[in-house]
Amino acid sequence: MIDGQLRVVLAEDSVILRDGMVELLGSRGCRVVATAGTAPELVASVDEHRPDVAVVDIRMPPTHTDEGIRAAVEIRARTPEVGILVFSQHNETVWASRLLADGAAGVGYLLKERVARTDEFVEALHRVADGGTALDPEVVTGLMRGGRRGRVETLTAREREVLELMAQGRSNRAIAASLVVSERAVEKHVAAVFLKFGLRATDTDNRRVKAVLAYLAESTG
């Protein structure tokens, strides 16, 4: 990030949508350092500019199948310091699993039709660039259904809801608002998740991250 501006490489094969997003992000304090209409252009742009985050669509030319997400997996392997935010109308659980195979830090996956506010999208960009996670609830649900359960099966329905929201990068306060419960109730559910996952407090307590990673590992395994 330079001068407080988030540096973004934007991959989108629709010229109209791409130009609109460049203008939108520019008005929200982000700097689009390069745009790409194909997967090879995306990889080359990330190699050249080393942005804070790359915004990637799944289906890009020439076949419009999975070129974009394949490029995202390649970028994550080659330049893990670059955040990846998949922004697509397609919920591809198999490729989401591949993208999250090495951990959820610095990864996001949002569905276009479910992003209701520009602020929500920009906030997700910053979260991913800072090493956080931003996953649409439908993506999380798809990952859960597609994988084995393990420790997740020991959770109550409410504990699982709380963990899903944690995996989306939400704070206890945001989780409480989403579930219409008290923040204290959320804290109790989070503590129960830590206990059932065998995560004890340490001097450098990052149990929240470990719980999310364990959850995603079981959901994508």
Automatic annotation (TrEMBL):
Q: Which Pfam families match?
A: GerE, Response_reg
Which organism encodes this protein? Streptomyces nymphaeiformis
Q: This chain belongs to which protein, by name?
A: DNA-binding NarL/FixJ family response regulator
Q: Where is the HTH luxR-type domain?
A: 148-219
Task: Kindly list the GO molecular function terms attached to this UniProt entry.
Answer: DNA binding
What the entry lists under CDD domains is as follows: LuxR_C_like (cd06170), REC_NarL-like (cd17535)
Q: Name one GO biological process term.
A: regulation of DNA-templated transcription
Q: Which SMART domains match?
A: HTH_LUXR (SM00421), REC (SM00448)
Residues with the 4-aspartylphosphate modification: 57
Among its keywords, does the record have Transcription regulation? yes
Q: Which UniProt keywords apply?
A: DNA-binding, Phosphoprotein, Transcription, Transcription regulation
Q: Key word Transcription present in the record?
A: yes
In what residue span(s) does the Response regulatory domain sit? 7-127
- PANTHER family under this entry? TRANSCRIPTIONAL REGULATORY PROTEIN NARL-RELATED, TWO-COMPONENT RESPONSE REGULATOR
